[in-house]
Specification:
Elements: E1 14-15, E2 21-22, E3 28-29, E4 31-36, E5 39-43, E6 48-57, E7 61-62, H1 65-73, E8 83-87, E9 109-112, E10 117-122, E11 125-129, E12 134-142, E13 147-152, H2 157-168, H3 173-203, E14 207-209, E15 214-216, E16 219-224, E17 228-237, H4 241-287
Parallel strand pairs: 4-10, 4-15, 5-11, 5-16, 6-12, 6-17, 7-13, 14-16
Antiparallel strand pairs: 1-15, 2-3, 8-13, 9-10
Length: about 290
């Protein structure tokens, strides 16, 4: 568990300032807390909340596959390190509702959260009001349109061995497949780490210190004092089989192309050597043998 710090309205959703309200004959309400379009909220003191955010990417796609294959098989490639550029929709994430919530109708109710506060909830789910509560949330998001382009590559021992196999035998499909899987795995791991940081920044800190007047479009937050919250973010690429297959094809095509170019170059070099030798022989015949007097 960790104790979180206050946040402002510049992050996910909106948090406005405390406002005074008059309750008439029943007494004075010190503040009214309006919770609108929120999921997984605790209002009160000394509460405990754990929220897990899980995002899945249905598939990973390589951009500029031909360029990537050329870089992998080019002996003049400047090997620096894996540098992947990711293209995906900005995950303004649409989280699923916490467990137990059914339907999407607007629900309004008011409750005394202690210390003269009235809580009004509209079109929200998973809201707890009171002290000493425990809440466990699981939110799921789907990120689509994920693609990756390699701006730099590292020549690991495994990759070097696979490249050597392809250079020796351009038809080595197993080597092409293993090399494509190696690069795709590295890209997937980097993408998962990148999106984990991005989602964590979007979710922001869960703790809203003190009493706030209006909280809108927030997920997994606490309002009050002495609360503790723990957030975890997990991102998984479900599959990259298509990306591997497409890169494998490009690697095989590039290996065959390079082998053909090498064969043509050898043939040209051999022709030049023969031409040179023939010219030298002809010059020797014209000059004839040396004569001694």
């Amino acid at each position: 568990m960790r104790e979180t710090t206050p946040i402002g309205a510049e992050r996910w959703g909106e948090v406005s300032s405390v406002r005074e309200a008059d309750r008439g004959d029943q007494g004075t309400v010190q503040c009214v807390i309006l919770i609108e379009r929120c999921r997984g909220v605790q209002v009160g003191h000394d509460n405990d909340q754990c929220s897990a955010y899980r995002a899945t990417l249905p598939e990973l796609e390589f951009k500029a596959r031909e360029k990537l294959a050329q870089a992998l098989l080019n002996e003049e490639t400047l090997w620096v390190g894996d540098v992947f550029v990711f293209l995906h929709e900005v995950p303004r994430l649409r989280f699923s509702e916490p467990s137990g919530w059914r339907g999407s109708e607007t629900r309004e109710f008011s409750a005394d959260a202690g210390r003269g506060a009235m809580v009004v909830v509209r079109d929200s789910c998973g809201v707890q009001v009171g002290d000493g509560n425990v809440q466990r949330n699981q939110f799921r998001a789907r990120v689509i349109g994920a693609a990756v382009e390699a701006d730099g590559l590292a020549l690991t021992a495994e990759r070097a061995a696979l490249v050597a196999r392809l250079q020796a035998d351009p038809s080595d499909r197993a080597a092409a497949r293993e090399l494509a899987e190696n690069v795709a795995q590295a890209a997937a791991e980097d993408l998962e780490a990148d999106l984990t940081i991005e989602i964590a920044e979007i979710v922001a800190e869960p703790q809203i210190e003190g009493w706030s007047g209006t909280v809108r479009d927030r997920t997994g937050v606490q309002i009050g004092e002495g609360n503790e919250a723990e957030d975890t973010v997990q991102v998984n690429v479900l599959k990259w089989a298509s990306a591997v297959l497409e890169l494998e094809r490009e690697l095989l095509a590039e290996a065959v192309r390079r082998a053909s170019l090498a064969a043509e170059l050898d043939e040209l070099e051999g022709g030049r050597d023969k031409s040179f030798l023939s010219q030298a022989d002809a010059e020797a015949e014209i000059e004839g043998p040396e004569l001694s007097l």
